[in-house]
Design brief:
Largest sheet: 2 strands, parallel
Helix content: over 70%
Strand content: under 5%
Order of helices and strands: HHEEHHH
Strand order of the largest sheet: 1-2
């Protein structure tokens, strides 16, 4: 089920929303021109963590990786990034959006149980 095009599209949207959320949160941490830099840095941090630490041959990704990461660490990283994005949305005053985002993340991972099982087997 985790390879289903609709589930992959949802995963992609969650990633994009995560990047946007990190940027928005960084932007709101300053009232000076520094806010632009913070927005870019927070977005880049999300993208770097997401893109660099991956499990080799992950069927939900290209299969390529910069730093081969054990599956359980990748799962924790994904949950931490999405959980942080949900918290950031709530912190910015978008509580309903944060809870909906978190709920969609939860449903996505429930539907992706086969990928989670695969991740937990990867060393």
């Amino acid at each position: 089920m985790s390879k289903h095009p609709l589930n992959l599209a949802i995963r992609f949207l969650l990633e994009v929303i995560g990047i946007i959320t990190f940027a928005a949160w960084g932007y709101h941490q300053s009232e000076t021109g520094l806010r632009i830099l913070l927005a870019v840095l927070f977005a880049l941090a999300f993208m770097a963590l997401w893109g660099v630490f991956a499990v080799r041959d992950d069927p939900s990704r290209s299969g390529k990786t910069v730093l081969s990461t054990p599956g359980w660490i990748r799962l924790i990283l994904e949950l931490a990034l999405f959980g942080t994005a949900a918290w950031m949305q709530i912190n910015l005053g978008y509580s309903l959006i944060g809870w909906i985002f978190g709920g969609v993340v939860l449903v996505h991972y429930i539907i992706s149980w086969d990928r989670i099982a695969w991740l937990l087997k990867q060393k």
